[in-house]
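Section 4.2 – Deliverable D4.2 (structural model, holo form)

The reporting period included a commitment to supply a predicted holo structure for the target in complex with C6P. Inputs used:
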Amino acid sequence: MKVIKADFPILDKKVNGRNLVYLDSAATSQKPKQVIDAISDYYRNNNANVHRGIHTLSVEATEAYEGARKKVAGFVGVKDSSEIVFVRNATEAINLVAYSWGRLNIEKGDEVVVTVAEHHSNFVPWQQLAIENGATLKIVPIDSDGELDIEAFEKAISSKTKLVAFFHVSNVLGTINDVKRLSTIVNRKSKARILIDGAQAVPHMPVDISKIGCDFYVFTGHKMLGPTGIGVLWTRRELLSQMPPFLFGGEMISKVQLAKSTWNELPWKFEAGTPDIAGAVGLGAAVDYLSKIGMENVRKHEIELVEYAVKRLSKIKDVQIIGSLDPKKRGGVVAFNVDDIHAHDVASILDSEGIAIRSGHHCAQPLMEYLGIKSAARASFYIYNDKSDVDKLVEGIEKVRKVFKR
Ligand code: C6P
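Output (structure tokens):
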């Protein structure tokens, strides 16, 4: 894959007098000019509210918004685009399920299964639901290689299980779950619903939701070259039809009377108020951009980069890499610690060299507790990174060691 840094205007920026080396795409990706231009073009030429007006601009805006939904559906193997609900982000998608489906279906004595490596967004909503409705939250551990303990996973599922929620790709370990295999286990052992958090998967590898065997799949636009403020919930139509609305008000209604109201068709029943139209347009452009490269090529590129990063980082004295060292088993994130130096110190020295990484608990405090660490530094890669970025990271870490006299 050819790395096209020139498509990403922000990569020309100097940070602390150095060329920016952006290694924080797992937090949010940078945006190519094609996405920035699509959003700007929408506001310049087509801006109006959707589904409301008869006038030309409103028709254009509606076409742009619904066209983006079709693109997104096609990108993840969904045939019926009315199963794609636009929300703000992955977090809102999970909350939508927890509030709408969860509070209706999970009762005292039921069990909800999650893994210890979930992002808070796929942990706290279920923990909260379990507390409120008197259900039990079961937490599946990981092994020393950062892989899910499949035996424990299988054991955790029973006839009492009502929901199983797990990540597709971990934002800390990089671990890629075999989501099809996990879904098969759940479907064989129970009637539980399955929710998959694809926030770190859809931007980085081919994902065909129709082949997984899950019930809910969520992802977020800003990590896949799209703008912030737009995310996606996929659910089967049959399930969506049974679920009550999450938010009430304009757009999501069919008829409002003094005594009662009825709900709009799918997916608009779940899209209350004026949606993020420009966000959807931007996400559509991001999908076009990624499709042109090909997700197989994106994945291949990241395997190469991670392989190189793991090779170089493991040669630095005092660097401990978290998770598997096998690049084929992990996504484009490499979390690490440099001896006992706090990850924030690592990140701020790297920042002084123009290198952006994330540090801290990565919104995965249960995992940090399980691993017995307080924080970690994390470099995460995407299509605009190349091996020279890894080299700069390595030089930066050597500087950290020098500053701390290691
Ligand atoms: N992880 C990270 O730096 P939102 O914020 O809703 O768009 O995405 C939440 C989310 C859910 N699941 C996983 C696996 C994630 O990695 C994230 C976001 C960022 O790791 C920001 S905390």
